[in-house]
Write a structure and sequence with these properties.
Strand order of the largest sheet: 3-4-5
Distance between the termini: 61 Å
Number of strands: 7
Number of helices: 24
Shape: globular
Length: 675
């Protein structure tokens, strides 16, 4: 089953790339879309088979320049393959409708349509790699394909070109970190296959093991969008075409988590507590930083990109807690934390893909991403508004949203982890619980802002007033994600056995946390359970009572319609309503010390007198503080170095000959000293 499905995915992906290159404009998008969906279905089928208990290993000698191609699929790889395949299939359906209204330089262009199936194929194949060389080759192909897709609209907007530069630099920095870390690991372990790394990990010195973990953790967390190497994510995700944004945010970032779990827990076999405490610190910082930046953002797709950083931070907290508990030899609790993290990966993929697709529907209908210029979309786009609300419910981790399920399980693992001895554990776990609660609370404000201002407020622009609902294929793609969100929220037990097998693939015992109709936590002296169906039934009954009782009571009283008193100011206009910026301003004041907003007041006097003011211009921005403090000084230093280096190239041939002579003398002196 698995080899046949992977062969089918590869063949269909190649056919899709060829179709994107050779087909004319009109049939290109639907044909490539169908073939891309085929890649997702075949790859997802292989992943589901692995979750069902199938395993597969194969070697294709001579396929790579320096080594053979080693492939293997277990339940852990199968989980990420199944998620990527499902996202690819639904986004491909959505993308056919989305590309119908775009010009030759958008999603429907020949280059983009040729690269899209290959990108989808790499998302499925990266977890299949079973050697360092195979993994790095597939990883780089995924990075290059996604870079080309991010640059799809580079001719129309300079911001796309800038985002492409950031993404290219950061993604190749990831590659360098992974290359150094995995090469050092392979050299010490005596082989580059994952089987050799797993067998030789015990012979690697603690210093090298620590260095390897730090390097690969930096590379993989950057791909997941974690701070401080997250700078590419809020730039690339908004500027890419929406289907590509959905693939990157719901599938590609997951592979950073996969690489971290595969290498840190499986191949290295775990490690000392400081590894995982550092990872939990990065996860907590990413969760809070991401959601605070999302709260300040008025660009809808940028808001969702920062939300991805927040959710990946929550996953990193779970992975770090799993490694920490394993370091203290509490393996059942480690399995529970890892199960919670992997379950959140699945849930995040479902609701984040739906959020990006809904944002793409808004963009296609209005041409706008700025929430301050949107509004009034609920009436002309009811299906999109309802689907966005469903996905937002999952993102804020409130019942009956699917995000609530995995975050509840994550909190259970952290709270019950207090029984593990150690001062560091006693400090870090309560702090992690507090950060998760804080991020969930701010996330509620973020999506109330996005939903309220974007869909329920009055329209603030001509484009928003003229919006129309998305075509059926786009709604069908979003409907598939909505069905996944509903199934994961109501019947998470569907993942039970497969999730246990994925956890067991790292060497931990099965957690049994997701089974039957709900969630179950059973440890040595503690047990807890949650039934999503009963929870939804209780919430439904409460809502019916809350909505029905006032209506019954109101029928007994006489109603009178009267005009609302407006203090003589006339009816309110859209300019009087809350914008996304004004909605976030109270929250920004609370976190002023963390966000460090910048403001500028420019007063222009009239020409005749400096005492009379013609115009006052007020500007206030909330920059990404990490970028402001970390990246901007580095960029200024590099720019200064480049300007200084230009003085060395004065155009004089004599000067260049002098450089050559000095270089030759220095080289001869170095050789003489070394000899």
């Amino acid at each position: 089953m698995i080899p046949a499905a992977l062969a089918t995915a590869t063949a269909v992906g190649g056919a899709g790339a060829a179709a994107g290159l050779v087909l004319p404009q009109r049939p290109r998008v639907p044909v490539v879309g169908a073939l891309t969906a085929g890649v997702g279905v075949a790859g997802g089928a292989a992943g589901v088979a692995a979750l069902g208990g199938d395993r597969w290993t194969d070697t294709l000698p001579g396929m790579l320049p320096l080594a053979g191609t080693y492939l293997a699929v277990d339940a852990l790889a199968g989980l990420f393959m199944a998620v990527a395949g499902a996202v690819v299939a639904a986004v491909a359906v959505y993308g056919v409708g989305y590309a119908g209204g775009h010009g030759p330089h958008g999603l429907g262009s020949r280059t983009v349509q040729a690269v899209l199936p290959l990108f989808a194929l790499t998302l499925v194949l990266v977890p299949v790699a079973a050697s360092v060389s195979t993994f790095l080759v597939l990883w780089e192909l995924m990075a290059l394909a996604s870079l080309l897709l991010v640059l799809a609209e580079h001719r129309e907007r300079a911001s796309v070109r800038q985002a492409g530069v950031w993404y290219a630099v950061m993604t190749h920095l990831e590659l360098v970190l992974l290359l150094i870390g995995l090469a050092a690991f392979a050299a010490e372990a005596g082989g580059e296959t994952f089987a050799a790394l797993r067998a030789g990990a015990h012979a690697v010195s603690p210093t090298v093991r620590g260095l390897v973990f730090v390097l690969i953790a930096a590379g993989f967390t950057s791909k997941a969008g974690a701070v401080p190497l997250h700078a590419w994510l809020p730039r690339a995700h908004p500027e890419a075409p929406t289907p590509v944004s959905a693939l990157m945010s719901a599938a590609m970032v997951n592979l950073g988590i996969y690489g971290l779990v595969r290498t840190g827990l499986d191949l290295l076999g775990g490690g000392p507590a400081w590894w995982w405490l550092g990872l939990m610190t990065v996860g907590g910082a990413s969760a809070v930083h991401g959601i605070l930046q999302a709260a300040m953002a008025s660009d809808l797709k940028r808001l969702l990109a920062y939300s991805t950083s927040e959710n990946m931070g929550l996953v990193l907290i779970g992975v770090g807690a799993s490694g920490l508990f394993a370091a203290y030899d509490d393996r059942p609790l480690a399995a529970l934390a890892l199960a919670a993290a992997l379950l959140h990966v699945v849930n995040h993929a479902a609701f984040k893909a739906l959020l990006f697709c809904a944002a793409g529907s808004v963009l296609r209908a209005t041409g706008l991403r700025d929430l301050d210029r949107l509004g009034g979309l609920r009436a002309p786009m009811p299906a999109t508004a309802g689907l966005f609300a469903l996905a937002a419910l999952g993102a804020v981790a409130l019942p009956p949203g699917n995000g609530f399920i995995s975050e509840w399980l994550l909190l259970q693992s952290l709270i019950h982890g207090l029984q593990v001895p150690g001062v560091a554990v006693a400090v870090v776990l309560p702090l992690s619980v507090a950060l998760i609660a804080l991020s969930a609370g701010i996330a509620a404000a973020v999506f109330v802002k996005a939903l309220g201002v974007g869909f329920f407020a009055r329209p603030r622009s001509r484009q928003a007033s003229a919006a129309k609902e998305s075509p059926p294929l786009m709604l069908a793609g979003m409907g598939l994600f909505a069905a996944a969100c509903g199934a994961l929220a109501l019947v998470p037990g569907l993942l039970g056995d497969g999730l246990d097998r994925a956890v067991a693939a790292t060497g931990l015992p099965g957690s049994g946390a997701v089974s039957g109709g709900g969630l179950n936590v059973r440890l040595a002296d503690i047990s807890a359970s949650l039934s999503p169906l009963w929870l939804v039934a209780a919430l439904t009954a409460a809502l019916i009572l809350a909505a029905g009782l006032p209506r019954l009571y109101g029928r007994r009283r006489r109603r009178a319609n009267a005009r609302l008193w407006d203090c003589g100011g006339g009816p309110p206009t859209p300019r009087m309503a809350y914008t996304a910026t004004s909605f976030a301003e109270p929250l920004q004041r609370v976190f002023d010390d963390i966000l460090a907003p910048e403001q500028d007041v420019n007063v222009t006097p009239v020409r005749e007198s400096t005492y009379l003011v013609e115009r006052v211009r007020f500007q206030r921005r909330v920059p990404d503080r990490i970028e402001h403090r970390l990246y901007e000084p580095v960029l200024r230093a590099l720019a200064g170095t480049g300007q200084a280096a230009r003085r060395l190239a004065g155009g004089s041939v004599h000067l260049y000959l002098g450089y050559g002579f000095v270089g030759l003398v220095v080289l001869l002196l170095a050789l003489a000293v070394g000899w």
